[in-house]
């Protein structure tokens, strides 16, 4: 099956998950804490589960030989050639606060390598997609190709991270602090939206820690397709999560890596 055909199917998944999730947004719903009281707060809602369940059902029916890895319901057939990597609501904290800085992440790997990804923000009607070679925005304001911004100096960069408290005490937090001190402007609480704004040329750097595969796999083909680069802090593949640095410009990525590992 071609990437084009998979793209059509991903659009179906996005529409289906959006229908399951949107009735809960800015409405009353049940929220649980997956951290079982251990900080930091790790919320999950009825909407998360409804969105992932809907996507899993369609994947199983359409591609029974494919694997699935999702945040809410775990993994199945992870050794398959194609594996779908799902996060129904990346940015659940924003979701429960009524803020539209969240999205549904739908990623596809082939032999463990991310080959297609989409971030869908159904409330705003926006989709950011990519296959590692090109990336695209579709929304109320039309369709356009995504291109990252050329910016090499840390002193001119806009950096985003979800929450600095998510960095571990010691090395991680100190490393992030060096980046924040060296850059022009920092934004918090953006979750997956920050990576999409990086692909769109609005943000220059995203620095994160503690990510799982379902937090990043869908975003890798979007960032790379827009001309950016995303790796772990040691320069390795970001597909397994962990400590992540994404940059719109390869020179900026190199400068950020040097400072993170100083």
From TrEMBL:
Keyword line = Hydrolase, Magnesium, Metal-binding
The record's EC number reads 3.1.3.15
Q: Which Gene3D superfamilies match?
A: 3.40.190.80, Fructose-1,6-Bisphosphatase, subunit A, domain 1
Q: Does the keyword Transmembrane helix apply?
A: no
Q: Has keyword Hydrolase? A: yes
Signal peptide, first to last residue:
none
Query: What cofactor does this chain's UniProt record say it requires?
Result: Mg(2+)
Similarity comment: Belongs to the inositol monophosphatase superfamily.
Q: What is this protein called?
A: Histidinol-phosphatase
Origin species, per record, is Methylobacterium isbiliense
* GN (gene name): hisN
């Amino acid at each position: 099956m071609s990437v084009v055909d998979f793209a059509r199917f991903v659009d179906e998944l996005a529409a289906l998950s959006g229908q399951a999730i949107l009735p809960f947004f800015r409405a009353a719903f049940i929220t649980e804490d997956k951290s079982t009281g251990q900080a930091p707060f790790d919320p999950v809602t009825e909407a998360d589960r409804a969105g992932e369940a809907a996507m899993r059902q369609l994947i199983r029916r359409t591609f029974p030989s494919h694997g699935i890895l999702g945040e809410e319901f775990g993994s199945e057939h992870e050794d398959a050639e194609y594996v779908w990597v799902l996060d129904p609501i990346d940015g659940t904290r924003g979701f429960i606060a009524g803020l539209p800085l969240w999205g549904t992440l739908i990623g596809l790997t082939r032999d463990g390598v991310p080959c297609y990804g989409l971030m869908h923000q159904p409330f705003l009607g926006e989709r950011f997609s990519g296959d590692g070679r090109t990336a695209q925005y579709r929304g109320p304001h039309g369709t356009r190709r995504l291109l990252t911004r050329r910016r090499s100096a840390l002193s001119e960069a806009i950096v985003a991270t979800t929450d600095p408290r998510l960095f571990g005490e010691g090395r991680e937090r100190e490393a992030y602090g060096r980046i924040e001190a060296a850059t022009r402007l920092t934004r918090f609480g953006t979750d997956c939206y920050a990576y999409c704004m990086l692909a769109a040329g609005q943000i220059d750097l995203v620095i994160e820690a503690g990510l799982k595969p379902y937090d990043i796999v869908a975003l890798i083909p979007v960032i790379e397709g827009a001309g950016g680069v995303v790796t772990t802090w040691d320069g390795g593949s970001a597909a397994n999560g962990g400590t992540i640095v994404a940059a719109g410009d390869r020179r900026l990525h190199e400068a950020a890596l040097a400072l993170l590992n100083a």
